[in-house]
Design a protein that fits this description.
With 153 residues, the protein is mainly alpha-helical. The longest helix has 21 residues. The protein is elongated, with a radius of gyration of 21 Å. A two-stranded antiparallel ribbon has the order 1-2. The chain has seven helices and two strands. 24% of the residues are buried. It has two domains: 82 residues, no CATH class; 46 residues, no CATH class.
């Protein structure tokens, strides 16, 4: 008898609010995981989605739908056209949001999993994982080195 255990990934740490731009409009239609794939593959600018009466065959695709189709498939591309067609979506880069989600995942799973495994799962280097676990990511960026001389007179 095997129990089904929910497999968590770093993607579970990503919240729709972490994504900027018009990604929030895509999430209810295609889901968070596919929205992240869209962001990684075609994010970084505007995506023109002209009004299309019906999409039932790949030959009916044009403009931004041609970019979406290979990532999300015809059925979901048609759903996006029905919901968001006739406009333009702004899809900015999401590197920062993905990095924040990966850092959250590492912090939440540090005591549970091997750090090398965490690095493999998140795509971060082992060194980055160790720094996150030690809490040195923000501290290193913002802290003043105590050995540095003061500029105040």
């Amino acid at each position: 008898m095997s129990e089904t255990m929910a497999v968590t990934t770093w993607l579970d740490e990503l919240k729709p609010d972490d994504l900027r731009g018009d990604y929030a409009e895509l999430v209810p239609i295609i889901g968070l995981e596919l929205t992240v794939r869209v962001a990684e593959e075609i994010g970084g600018g505007p995506l023109l989605l002209p009004y299309v009466a019906e999409i039932s065959h790949p030959d009916h695709l044009r403009s931004g739908y041609l970019d979406l189709y290979p990532i999300i498939g015809l059925e979901l591309t048609a759903a996006v056209a029905a919901s968001l067609g006739g406009g333009q979506l702004y899809l900015p880069q999401v590197r920062h949001a993905l990095k924040v989600a990966k850092e959250r995942y590492v912090k939440n799973h540090d005591r549970v999993q091997n750090r090398r495994q965490l690095a493999r799962e998140t795509g971060l280097s082992v060194r980055q994982v160790y720094r996150i676990c030690e809490g040195k990511t923000q501290q290193r960026r913002s802290a003043v080195d105590p050995r540095q001389m003061s500029l105040a007179i």
